[in-house]
Amino acid sequence: MSEAAVAALRAGRAVILPTDTVYGLCALPGHEDVLYQLKGRDRSKPVALLAADVDALVAAVPGLDASVIERYLPGPYTLVVGEVGVRVPDLPPEAAEVVRAVGVVAATSANVSGGPDPRRVEDVPEEIREACGAIVDVGELPGIPSTVIDLTGEEPRVLREGAGPPPE
Q1: Would you tell me which of 22, 43, 98, 112 could form a disulfide with 117, CB atoms 3.0–4.6 Å apart?
Q2: What is the DSSP letter of 157?
Q3: pLDDT (tens digit, 9 = 90+) per residue, 52-100?
């Protein structure tokens, strides 16, 4: 496990972690400001909560219905449930160990807001890399972001097409 990444997260710093889609910029919940600052992201756009498994996600988000979540996760989806987006990607083992050690992380893609999605650490802007407390590099990722599905209505609605196929 990357002790440096766990220590950086616990110290309130951002880290770069690989997911099943793109490299993510992560911080512990309560420290999301650093993500918005590094990305230049509009604060009206929420970041997602990311967990290493569905049980950890359900434990971290009160009122989350595991039976609904398990239809999509783990996998390349971000689900909008209430006021929050949630993810349980098929994390590379190196990233899964870090996330398990801290429970859940707030996460967004490791790019400047509106910039290209990073499939390699080298694709993450240098100013973001330099500001992070740790980077877990596992080489090249698919580079297609997660599919975002809004589950707040009666029927699932795709907000962004991505790596996961649309729901049936």
Answers
A1: 22
A2: E
A3: 999 999 999 988 999 989 999 999 999 999 888 999 999 999 999 999 9
Domains, the chain, ordered by start: 3-160 (3.90.870.10)
Q: Which two tokens stand for residue 107?
A: 């996460």
Place of tokens 């996760």: 73
Average pLDDT over residues 107-119: 95
pLDDT for the residue 168:
76
For the question of whether the overall pTM of this predicted structure is more than 0.90, the answer is yes
3-state secondary structure 45-100: CCCEEEECCHHHHHHHCCCCCHHHHCCCCCCCEEEEECCEEEECCCCCHHHHHHHH
Q: Residue 53 in contact with residue 125, Cβ under 8 Å?
A: no
Tell me how many helices (H) and strands (E) the chain has: 6, 9
